[in-house]
Structure formats: C-alpha cells, structure tokens
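I am still getting used to backbone structure tokens and would like to learn alongside you. To get us started, please write out a protein record for me. Once you have written the record down, we can walk along the chain together.
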Amino acid sequence: MPDTQEYVSSDEIRARFSRSMSEMYREEVPAYGTLLDLVADVNEQVLKNDPDLKARLEETDNLDRISEERHGAIRLGTADELHMMSRVFNVMGMEPVGYYDLTQANVPVHSTAFRSTDAESLSKSPFRVFTSLLRTELIKDEDLRKKSEEILAARDIFTPRLRELVDKFEERGGLTEDETQEFIKEATYTFKWHQDAAVDKDFYEALKAEDPRAADIVCFKGPHINHLTPRTLEIDTIHADMPNRGMNPKNVVEGPPPTHPILLRQTSFKALTESVKFEGEEGLHTARFGEIEQRGAALTEKGRKLYDEVLAEVRAEITPAPDGSNAAEYMQKLEDTFMERFPNTAEGLYEDGLAYFQFYVTDKGMEEGLISKDLYTLIESGNIAYTPITYEDFLPVSAAGIFASNASDKAHEDEFTQSSQAKFEEALGRPVWSEFKLYDEMERASIDAAITKLSHVSKELDSGHNSPGVG
C-alpha cells in the first residue's frame, strides 16, 4: 500500500527544534534570557529609528526572521559522532556548509556549519549549528591522548530512539506529527547539559591544563550546547550595555569594524563557571557562554580575499590582548585600516565586485516594466534595486577568538599543524558545500526573478494599451 501519511516539513522541524533549544538553554543559563531581552529591545529601537532598513528587510522577506534567528555551537569527539550528527541535522534540512580550520588560531578542532542552503528555507528558519570535531592527535601528552580516545570511543551521545527516528526519516522521507514531537524531544536532549562528568577530577584537570577545549569535549557525556546566538541589528550598543544588565562581555567585538557592514561581527558574555561532579567529587567547569551576532553582506571570493588580507595586516601590527588592555587601540587600528582599503557602502561593494546581492523590482519598475534586458541599465534607471545578501556563515578567526576568550584569560601559544578538509569530509561521510557557490546561486536566482517580474509587467502594460477601448 502507498504511504498516505502526512509528514512535517524539514523547515518546520528545524524551526520547532530551534525554539526547543532556546527554551532549554534559557532554563540552563538564565543570563541567556537576559541577553534575548536586550537584543529584542535594541532591534526594536533600530527598526523604529531606521524605516529604510525596515522597508528593505520587508522587501527581501528578511524582517520576520530577525527574532527567530540564532545559531548554536557544539563540539564533537569522533568521526562517528560527526557522521551521525549530520544525519540528525539532515532531518531538519540542514546541510554542511563551509570548512573552518581553527588550528590556525590555536584551537584543536576543525569545523563546518549545518544550515539550510536555499533562500526560501532560510527565510522560514535560518537556524544553524557551528559543529566542531576534535583532533585528538593534537593532544600532545600520549597518555592523555590515548585515554581521551578510549573515553570518546566508549560513549554514545545519541539516544536509541533518536537513532530509530533518523532511520525512519531516511527510509520514508519524512516524520509524522507524533514522530516529529519525539524527534525534537530526543534531539534537544542530545545537547543538554549534564552535571555529572564522564571522568574523574584528576583526569579532567590534567586535560584542561593541556587544552580546556579538549577537556570540554572529552570529559562530558554529550556535546552540551556551548552557546546559542541571537542576531542583533546593532551589536556595539549591546556590547556597551551588557554590563548594565549584569553580563561580563569579552573585550572586543570580533570581525570587521562597525564602519563596515560585512560578513559577521560577534561578541559574548564570558563563560559561566558551573559546578560539576567528577565521579562524585565536586569540581568546576567553565565553557558555556552567551553570544550575540550582527550579520552583514556576504562577500565574493574576491571580497573575502581582500578582507582576510586587511585583517591579517591589522593583526600583524596589533593583536587583541586576552586582558583587554589594548582593546581600544586594536579597534581603532582595525577601523582605520579597513577605511583605507575596503569599501563600506553597498554601492562600493557592488561596483568592486566584493559582495553578493539580492536584486528586486522597485515601484518605478512596476510602473515601467522591462525597459532593457541589461541589468546595469535597469539599475541605473531605477527599475531594479539591490541589497546585500546576508552572510549565513562564520569566520575562523572570530570563532577562535570567542572560543579562546571563554576558555581562559591566558594567551595560547600552541602551533598546531594545519587541518585537512579532505580528512574532515572523510569523517563527515560527504563533501561540504561551498558557501560561495550557494551565494552565487542566490544572486543569480534573484536576478532571474526580477527580470521575469519586469517582463510580466511589460506584457500586462502592452496588453492594457492594446485592449479595445483603452486609450
């Protein structure tokens, strides 16, 4: 008999899972609720003060997603965990996009981001999870490395029921309403904080001394969510106001300067110190924190290359100190250098081919139709306008800066060997998507849609002018 059951869409499952995660994290980390309230207040004020921004967000179907938008971050220990996690995220329509080698910033992991890959799904729920895999070979102490690998090999971070539901989804192509509710419950539990550690206190302290990120991955029973990140429209206001709300922010906002609305800017409140039981013995662990992000324009490969060059130039001269002693000096140097070398307007980014754009028909275009098939002419005439495509991905240096500031106040000087995308994809069991290819496809699709819309307007105008009794 054919399967006539109705299945819940992957977009809907993802949206519900995102809300479930937010509710759980708000309970586990009360300061996260305070952070959400602060972000909501600032976003509301920004939209009130900038009607043009509000109109652009409404025009490109991006306004409603602001309040829903957040990302999570998890750290996994084995290739098997990464492979199974990719199957879990597949149920929610989330694909691995991009490859991030955090060893370049002295963090012993490499990563990808699981997210939707098309504009329509992103507009329904842009939830994404930055997912890192520990490189145990970078644990230098041989005994610690061997025991870490034994601990990771012995654990199962997924419940049997979650595995069954993923199997069902893959066999049938969907989950029923009841199964969806079960799936969200079981998947959320996977990321839950467990106060009982998986190791004794001596091993934890020894591994933490070598690398606190490795200890966070190896010593616990699951990949507890390290942070959830709401999206703000004005991160500097939030960064300045966090102490007034009882939060201790990191010293600098990671990413480009406030003068350049590109890529991704991130900050966080410092990680909480939480009580843990190590085989019954009381101890403390510091890893989970609250992060905020402000997303800007997605850059082309040319734009990203220039961004990396300019950032490297700044950091060759000054790097943010862990204690924040040179924060103001660093931010000034960052701003000055970017103002010299990188456009900071949509027009400048477009003219120099540095960013991707979403093109849409203006009110003038709806009156005049397709006056030319040349995109440049249509833009010059005001029949088509453009707005930057929002960057949906991450920055290795920024992620490492957030990780480092929430692991220790000491500067890490390890020089890890570079990671391999091929080895990561082998563990994942599939290639990662190129974010540049996805943005390029989104841009091309928006151009085609705008031209098609203008063509329809022209046909309607012609039909109206040629109809009997008209004119």
Notes: The chain has a mean pLDDT of 88.
